[in-house]
Description:
This protein is mainly beta.
Amino acid sequence: MSGLFLGLGLTIHGQGGGGAPFDPVSLFTTEQGFIHDLTNPANVFQERTGASATTPSGNGGPIGSMKDLSPNNNWAIAPADAARPLWRAAGYCDPDGVDDGFEFTPCNVAYICAALTMRTMPIAYETFVAVGFNVNLNIVRREAAGETWRTVGNGGDAADFTHPSGTITVNGVTGFAFTDDVPHVVEFIADPVAKSLGAMFLTAAIDRFGKIQMYRCFARETVPTASERESLRAWCGEAIP
Length: 241
């Protein structure tokens, strides 16, 4: 399985205030991608068997499979029993910071929006997620000292949230700082042509999630419109306690 990277009800009042509730599933027609919502216990299971999993994780139980709520059936699956994060009733996965995490299908997407918390780690640099723009695989990481995210290959400038073909936003603001132990809504945006956004959440030395707690995640092979992105950020943010 190739990797990449989360979701109670799938509706919020997003577009057009007072109109029909926003449903992230409505943003899929023929596009590949996935929707993971960890706020609903019905979406997380102990077995690493994807759609055939039957045992709910329960509070404090391991997550072997996360249900994909999109039409694509792209379940996220832990690579080994020992690498299963725990599910917390507050609505997020709780990895051990060593080797826990998931493999996601597919990895060829141009857009990700997720609600997550980066937990404090005792190392100088933390790698967040492998992100491939065009033909180059760059690592987007958080610099502990400045609590900002940046790509490795662009000189470490303070404004290094942007790449020639893409952008990273935090809470809808390009280049905004990420604070440890505080939930944020983060977007990875490549150009309109689908690019590989990588696969795994990483720490500096070990793959998988590291110490990232995830609540919800939406990924698609094409970039949504500005209004759709606004609604997706609101939907992800709704999961944050």
